[in-house]
């Protein structure tokens, strides 16, 4: 007798097919999931989710970078190992020097920032090809900074632009007029200066501020609304004196000084014990092209302390894009800034600094 075969009803056939499809789908989806997980593990985090940087960490690294660069600047000067060269002429025709202090400070500052925050845009006045991955952040958060930040303040990396000046006042540095020398770091967010660090390596003083969080420096107790003292560039003072005297009167004292960082500090309280680390001025005026790495840190300091730094036309400076600010600048704190601008605009000639 022939063995009986198994016969499935149409309903059984349908159930059997559905079970088969389910098994195949389960196996296939497992393969897809594992491959997708492997792809994600190889994809940079920045493409998977929005990357952020803690503002407190940015400030701590910025202070450390400025002070690390300052040590290089000071050591090169004290060893008289400047190896001075010229980068050419400025637009005003002055010599634009370059020293070993500029370069060694740049390497320390730039790579400390880049090694800590590799996705952040860092712009430096200097450039070289000696990459150094050994420079690492100490992970130290100074107590004064911790006091200002009680919690995290995360900033998207794509909104951040960092400007560093490894040695401000290089001309004065070569002349051993070291009181004017600073190293500076500025963090701009969406083009607005938010963190400013100005370090004086030969005085051992660091000023810093974070807009909206505080600063370790203060405004002076008083300023002259009709400025008695206006600080300008030492190396290109020229016709700016006429413009200032036409605006504020012949009795105005004009202070010629090196370094944009020093000039901003001259508007603030920089006393150490009984000694002021800078001359005191009421207003800072510059009438020609100036680079953003020269002024961004000072702008952040002034903003946090209720001051302003604008172009001569009163425009806010965007700290993104090209490094040149071609609109000149007026910087003040504790004074009616718009009134200063109106008086300076009253001089309509084309005097240049």
Automatic annotation (TrEMBL):
<dbReference type="InterPro" id="IPR050725">
    <property type="entry name" value="CysQ/Inositol_MonoPase"/>
</dbReference>
<keyword id="KW-0460">Magnesium</keyword>
<dbReference type="GO" id="GO:0046854">
    <property type="term" value="P:phosphatidylinositol phosphate biosynthetic process"/>
</dbReference>
<keyword id="KW-0479">Metal-binding</keyword>
<dbReference type="GO" id="GO:0016020">
    <property type="term" value="C:membrane"/>
</dbReference>
<comment type="similarity">
    <text>Belongs to the inositol monophosphatase superfamily.</text>
</comment>
<dbReference type="GO" id="GO:0005794">
    <property type="term" value="C:Golgi apparatus"/>
</dbReference>
<keyword id="KW-1133">Transmembrane helix</keyword>
<feature type="binding site">
    <location>
        <position position="165"/>
    </location>
    <ligand>
        <name>Mg(2+)</name>
    </ligand>
</feature>
<protein>
    <recommendedName>
        <fullName>inositol-phosphate phosphatase</fullName>
        <ecNumber>3.1.3.25</ecNumber>
    </recommendedName>
</protein>
<dbReference type="InterPro" id="IPR020550">
    <property type="entry name" value="Inositol_monophosphatase_CS"/>
</dbReference>
<feature type="compositionally biased region" description="Basic and acidic residues">
    <location>
        <begin position="76"/>
        <end position="94"/>
    </location>
</feature>
<feature type="binding site">
    <location>
        <position position="168"/>
    </location>
    <ligand>
        <name>Mg(2+)</name>
    </ligand>
</feature>
<feature type="binding site">
    <location>
        <position position="125"/>
    </location>
    <ligand>
        <name>Mg(2+)</name>
    </ligand>
</feature>
<dbReference type="GO" id="GO:0046872">
    <property type="term" value="F:metal ion binding"/>
</dbReference>
<dbReference type="Pfam" id="PF00459">
    <property type="entry name" value="Inositol_P"/>
</dbReference>
<dbReference type="GO" id="GO:0052834">
    <property type="term" value="F:inositol monophosphate phosphatase activity"/>
</dbReference>
<feature type="binding site">
    <location>
        <position position="167"/>
    </location>
    <ligand>
        <name>Mg(2+)</name>
    </ligand>
</feature>
<comment type="pathway">
    <text>Polyol metabolism; myo-inositol biosynthesis; myo-inositol from D-glucose 6-phosphate: step 2/2.</text>
</comment>
<keyword id="KW-0378">Hydrolase</keyword>
<keyword id="KW-0812">Transmembrane</keyword>
<feature type="region of interest" description="Disordered">
    <location>
        <begin position="76"/>
        <end position="99"/>
    </location>
</feature>
<feature type="binding site">
    <location>
        <position position="294"/>
    </location>
    <ligand>
        <name>Mg(2+)</name>
    </ligand>
</feature>
<dbReference type="GO" id="GO:0008254">
    <property type="term" value="F:3'-nucleotidase activity"/>
</dbReference>
<dbReference type="InterPro" id="IPR000760">
    <property type="entry name" value="Inositol_monophosphatase-like"/>
</dbReference>
<keyword id="KW-0472">Membrane</keyword>
